[in-house]
Design a protein that fits this description.
two-stranded antiparallel ribbon, 13 helices
């Protein structure tokens, strides 16, 4: 009850979007309201990460030998060619094991307040180390990762350049820090919505602006706000109405697994919506494959709202305007294995 009251109070505090006029929402008024809720993605990372660490992190992001079987890299589940995710309900890991949750996008992940669906990693560096140690994912461990990197001699000068002055720079902590530095560059500026926020009235069409107005007035923006249009708070999934068990599996209690606090049962980090049109399927279960259905689920489960098909289409049109310019990433040529490189384990 307390969560519901707090949520309603939050909606009231946000205010209501101005009603759409016959010719569509008024740009100036809608923009003023939107700027109180959202923020454009910057043109470049701020502050810019160290270039040497970015170069090393790029190699490690694509490095399959960080996994026990030498066949899974960060890019396997966070494919930069497919929106920073893998377009699967759940990812396949070591020995073809299925992961427990849908793989979230790595694009703009630097703007999330915490990483993973349950927020168990405070930052990108912690997140980078998680899958390496997960027996279902890459199935390695810090000692073996370090042994592996030292056994691939071409990495030694890259680590030395990225972490100058360290007597032994090839460490697990430095590897995850370098991956995090690279991931900080994976931002997607200049989405149509960003250009519109900055004053370009032509960047959004009337349907997108109607969708934005609904997104605010129906209460979506109470949780999906900020620079990443989400990713900065936690909410129970099923605040008003419990979703179907296929969408919210009863055995996955979300953040409760981290905090062991009863009130955190079925609570998850609010999904960031940047580039959401590129990354089906949706929700932590990966059970919904189209945005129209996802919007309807959220309206019912989180807001208790009834939206018709035309309104859903307008909101989906707005969500499409959140697709930004993908970063240009050159696939690295990785250092070759040597006689000292540990062999893969099937």
């Amino acid at each position: 009850m307390q969560r519901t009251i707090s949520f309603i109070a939050l909606l009231l505090a946000q205010g209501l979007a101005l009603p759409a006029m016959a010719g569509g929402p008024d740009d100036a008024a809608l923009r003023q309201e939107a700027l109180g809720l959202f923020e454009p993605i910057p043109q470049k990372p701020e502050p810019a990460p160290d270039p040497a660490r970015v170069d090393l992190g790029r190699a490690l992001f694509f490095e399959p030998r960080l996994s026990e079987g030498h066949n899974i890299s960060c890019n396997t589940c966070h494919n930069l060619g497919t929106g920073g995710a893998d377009l699967a309900s759940v990812s396949l890991g070591h020995r073809w094991q299925k992961g427990g949750r849908n793989s979230p996008t790595v694009l703009n992940a630097a703007y999330n307040s915490a990483q993973f669906w349950d927020g168990r990693a405070a930052n990108l560096s912690e997140q980078a180390g998680g899958p390496m140690q997960n027996p279902v994912e890459m199935a390695s461990n810090p000692d073996h990762v370090t042994e592996m990197l030292k056994g691939i001699h071409g990495y030694e000068p890259l680590f030395a350049k990225a972490f100058p002055g360290e007597a032994d720079p090839v460490t697990f902590a430095n590897a995850t820090a370098a991956i995090a530095a690279f991931e900080e560059t994976l931002i997607t500026p200049d989405a149509p919505f960003d250009r519109w926020l900055r004053g370009d009235d032509t960047a959004l069409g009337e349907k997108e602006k109607q969708g934005l107005s609904l997104f605010i007035s129906e209460g979506c923006a109470s949780c999906h706000n900020g620079r990443n249009i989400g990713g900065n708070s936690y909410q129970p999934f099923g605040l008003v109405e419990t979703p179907d068990a296929s969408v919210r599996p009863p055995d996955d209690k979300g953040r409760f697994a981290v905090t062991k606090t009863a009130s955190d049962e079925y609570t998850f980090r609010v999904a960031p919506l940047r580039n959401v049109a590129l990354t089906p399927p949706y929700f932590h279960s990966g059970a919904v494959w189209d945005l129209q259905t996802a919007v309807q689920v959220m309206a019912t489960a989180q807001l208790g709202a009834s939206v018709d098909d035309a309104q859903v289409d307008e909101i989906v049109a707005f969500l499409g305007s959140l697709t930004g310019e993908a970063p240009t990433v050159v696939y690295p040529i990785l250092p070759p294995s040597t006689a000292d490189t540990p062999r893969p384990k099937p």
